[in-house]
Amino acid sequence: MTRRERQDLIDAGHLLPLMEEFYTIQGEGFHKGTAAYFVRIGGCDVGCHWCDVKESWLAELHPPTATTQIVENAIKYSNTIVVTGGEPLMWDMEPLTNQLKTKRVQTHIETSGAYKLTGQWDWICLSPKKMKLPTDEIYGKAHELKCIVYNKDDFKFAEEQAAQVNKDCILYLQPEWSKRDKMMPQIVDYVMANPKWKVSLQTHKYLNIP
What we know:
Belongs to the radical SAM superfamily. 7-carboxy-7-deazaguanine synthase family. This protein has one domain: Aldolase class I (TIM Barrel, Alpha-Beta Barrel), CATH 3.20.20. The chain is about 30% helix and about 25% strand. It has helices at about 5-10, 65-75, 95-100, 135-140, 155-160, 180-195, 205, and strands at about 15-25, 35-40, 65, 80-85, 105-110, 125, 145-150, 170-175, 195-200. Strands 3-1-2-4-5-6-7-8-9 form a nine-stranded mixed sheet. It is globular, with a radius of gyration of 17 Å. The termini are far apart.
């Protein structure tokens, strides 16, 4: 395969920069506590300074992997597949999700929403970031909004984002892990004063699993 042919397959979403894949318990948001197979795609230019997977940022570090191979691996373990990153929507998700849907599995995505929404999704977790805001399209399609709280200014940002999602979208506030002891009391107070919000925790870290 020539370099050009390989790049064409990447551009079309038939090859994806696969950072890692693993079977575990979903630790965050609406589906926390349920078993799922995670597919982490490399590449992200959003640039959160507190990101705990910065090794995912450079797509070139992760081998272009055939979507057929990703699907074959995933369906061995679970009927719920979570695609995360990095920022997976930097790539065309149609080939991956089309193949997963032929296997009759549930497809979930965790995204900042900063890129065009591609793929067929049963659940969209939108986790917007100030540095690169979501597209207008995804606000109306998100099933849950997960806003990370690093400091008190993030409450204002969360409300700005909540004002744009659809009425059925579930709203979560989640403390950034390194600031959890400081911010959790503030999040609890905020949710009690604003009960449209729910608290999300990274329960997988408390359970010491991936």
